[in-house]
Amino acid sequence: MDIRDVKTQELVKKYNFKFTKSLGQNFLVDDSVLEDIVNGAEVTEEDVVIEIGPGVGTLTAQLLKKAKKVIAIELDDELVPILQNELGENPNFQLIHKDALKVDFNELIGDEKSVKLVANLPYYVTTPIIVRLLNEGYNFKSLTVMIQKEVAERINSEPNCKEYGSISVLVQYYCDTNIIRYVSPNCFIPRPKVESVVIRLDRLEKPRVELRSEKLFFDVVRSSFNMRRKTLWNAVKSIGLPKENMERAFESSGIDQKRRGETLSIEEFAALSDAIYDEKDKVK
Ligand code: SAM
């Protein structure tokens, strides 16, 4: 089936659509960005694409040209009839009228082998959506998302950079990260206040490091970045291990307790949290 291109401004006018700021509605109007998102996501006819927040369907139409199927999840009541009207005839298009934070993605993924998430995300929920998609272990091959530049730079950051933080460790624990391009506010209507970035997160077959306890690993990471200016020793005090056990944990992991959390690689966080886990076992 031939798929018509969807032109954002034309549809906004045709349906007299009123933007809702609180839903993060900044629609793409630049064809080169659409092309770069679809190419950057490496969508093929083997792929089922899940799109969060299709808006009036501008990106959706381009995805439908390449993918086996596109499942779009949209929260706004006003957009549902527009999307049905413009794209509903396409047999490979499925629309889900729901909050993406409440969708059971396992139900959508089913037995599909190659599922990719592609989205120009509503910025007010960027981090909760990404964290949920990664933490809940859904079987996505990749997530290609447009997000605020600052968040993308944090996700893509390395130890010893000022952007490096819990979100960098969380995302890189599960994924390889690739910045595809920077996007100016002029590429959207209405114009957002911030610059954006398209980033692709390729899910690793298994997490980057093997851990004794994922929960303890993320507790150590969070404590370390909550107190960025403090030494690791002071930051991980909240874990509540007796002093001598904590000293042994630092010693056996080979991590200097005077270092700051922001200098540790994921492998070093893993070594420290595993050593703390072993010491915790001893004081049980
Ligand atoms: N994909 C379109 C584009 O690129 O032009 C629109 C992107 S716009 C940044 C974000 C879209 O997400 C809007 O259509 C908005 O209504 C929708 N949205 C906001 N919150 C949502 C949520 N919690 N679940 C699903 N969709 C949501």
UniProtKB/TrEMBL annotation:
SUPFAM superfamilies in UniProt: S-adenosyl-L-methionine-dependent methyltransferases
Superkingdom of this protein's organism: Bacteria
Keywords: Cytoplasm, Methyltransferase, RNA-binding, rRNA processing, S-adenosyl-L-methionine, Transferase
PROSITE patterns: RRNA_A_DIMETH, SAM_RNA_A_N6_MT
Catalysis: reaction(s): adenosine(1518)/adenosine(1519) in 16S rRNA + 4 S-adenosyl-L-methionine = N(6)-dimethyladenosine(1518)/N(6)-dimethyladenosine(1519) in 16S rRNA + 4 S-adenosyl-L-homocysteine + 4 H(+)
Residue ranges of domain Ribosomal RNA adenine methylase transferase N-terminal in the record: 33-205
Function: Specifically dimethylates two adjacent adenosines (A1518 and A1519) in the loop of a conserved hairpin near the 3'-end of 16S rRNA in the 30S particle. May play a critical role in biogenesis of 30S subunits.
Homology family: Belongs to the class I-like SAM-binding methyltransferase superfamily. rRNA adenine N(6)-methyltransferase family. RsmA subfamily.
UniProt-recorded name of the protein: Ribosomal RNA small subunit methyltransferase A
Gene giving rise to this polypeptide: rsmA
